[in-house]
């Protein structure tokens, strides 16, 4: 922090790194510079390329092009282990240590103090204690690591990395599972290490924490470098604009003709609905024939809200009502029973079954809803498949083709068809346009509007603010796992959404008071 | 420390079982019976010690029974037919089995294959090879055999601690020290905790895998030599199913089948429990010896259920924490 203005020679220099996975260009000519003794935040939305950059630098993925220099010397580690030996250590959110071994063994695995071929257990424990004391931990190092909290495991992982003479420490979402107090401890350690001259890369989606701890910020978007700034001179709004790729000038365009607000019947409502440590309690009304958009940065609680609404996650407080009757949503089955549908973000892993045909994928949810005892006849299945292939214009129009062979946009349509076949009253769509081409994009958006005009209630999550503005009747803005703003009608535009996302927590509270 | 509670339970089962046997048949509580028990199960104790390392590392070795069978035939033929001095034959067969294990370990690592499949292939291979050598039982008449068989330390109370029992005890003690006190031992636990993570932390996973299976096969070879002393013969059908007995001993001894936790001492107690049940059945005289298997099966179920219970208990607070992560 103190020396962030010094023209210190770069500790880690990444120049022109490119990496493709098949046809997908995950990184394009990305530069990144880390100075000794600085805490450098690496930011970007989902798919921006943060993880890929880390994995390329640490040798987990081979790079297609570019150079990495550590202390002026070119390095090309072929594995995480080689990177570690070179002095680049990474601590991931899921701590990469062995919970079944003692804390001391974890710290000194494969480099235990030895005498006559025997591990000097006492000496090892003494050193482990000494090492952890530096990090403000006083724990029984003989106990299995798994007995301790995630925070302690993180600190142990950092201590191990630093003791392995790491010069560059990459912390990937280290605070995601820590409480406030634990975050303070971690930040204290980070500052202490930075003072020692270690360069720290801090990946996080908690912007408050980024502003609290980092000296400098590098933002990636869609695999490209957006820019590198000093934290102190980068306003929050500007940062979010960098991350989401919006220029305020071009976002003032009026939203597309959305139907004017009319009194609509409430389909489902949630009062004080929430789960501790997941999403703060919120009130949400979903009406027939209305699209509600959820906007916010990655990790702001959008998907979490959707999962609570659907029943994929259990709420620990609050009241849910469907058509006025109070209900309990304990599992996705409950969600389906009350006429909810959910298209998750990770189509490939959570949604479609790639090996099954279009027809089989479409009838899946309906069959599950009916139960095993009332199988759909082949004729019913064929009729359903034919209807939705036509209605949603799924291409190629062949119900017997395995879904895995379809394009992303058509896979998305098959998922939509699956839920539409169950005749839902509420459909939750998480990033419905992610990873599909521009043409299909517009088509999905048109479909969302059409479904809504047919009286369906829709809850849509999207990182594309333009898109949300286009189809939403109301927009809920989330920040730090809480609903912070609700925009309706004329108030819905990209500028307002950005402002709500960027608003400082304290300022918001003042404004409300 | 690691896995101590399950070991304690195993010890309690052994002591309680032994006490119950002693109440019914007071003669059981003698050094004579204990000495026999150790002798009868010497080969099992040796092979189960090797199996403990394999299972803690997250693997399994199904080939050990066949390796024992092969060893007995090889040793018998080498001494009786080929005229090779017994000591040379022992060294040769130990080298052969160690190489066999190393090869299995290398295949498991290089081709990233499940140990179950690779060692299953090894099991057929070794058994087939022993049939290739001889399908008949080959008696061993070399003087070394009678010398070793006659050797025994007298224990108070008239019990005999035979040479092969001493070998087994030495292997068990060696196994305990190797697992507890060396870097190799720590790495075995590390592999069981997670291969990818262990590799990230600097453990040479490939080398370790080769060494672990080499150790297991080497001990199976030694168990085969011990078995040939025990029966004074080499037979290609000997020790069928011993791999399962030794896995049972390891699990009853409190080692987690999924790896990462366990102890050699526990395995030794597991071997003794199986031996004790066999002894009880011998004393009873009316029960079929298959009751050993049934009792072992019941115990296995009980111990696996117990372990799952302990694991679930251990995970509960952790699961609560993890719930906060999106």
- Give the CATH H-level superfamily of the largest domain in chain A: P-loop containing nucleotide triphosphate hydrolases
Major sheet summary line of chain B: 2 strands, antiparallel
Radius of gyration of chain B: 20 Å
Task: Output the number of helix runs of chain A.
Answer: 18
The CATH topology of the largest domain in chain A turns out to be Rossmann fold
The assembly state of the depicted protein chains is heterodimer
Neighbour order of strands in the largest sheet of chain A: 6-9-10-3-11-12
CATH-level-2 architecture of the largest domain in chain A: 3-Layer(aba) Sandwich
Work out the number of β strands of chain A.
22
Task: Give the CATH level 1 class of chain B.
Answer: Mainly Alpha
Number of domains of chain B: 1
Strand order of the largest sheet of chain B: 1-4
Q: What Rg of chain A is obtained from the alpha carbons, in whole angstroms?
A: 25 Å
Name the largest protein-protein interface in this structure. Answer: A-B, 36 and 30 residues
* Alpha-carbon distance between the two ends of chain B: 33 Å
Order of helices and strands of chain B: HHHHHHEHEEHHHHEHHH
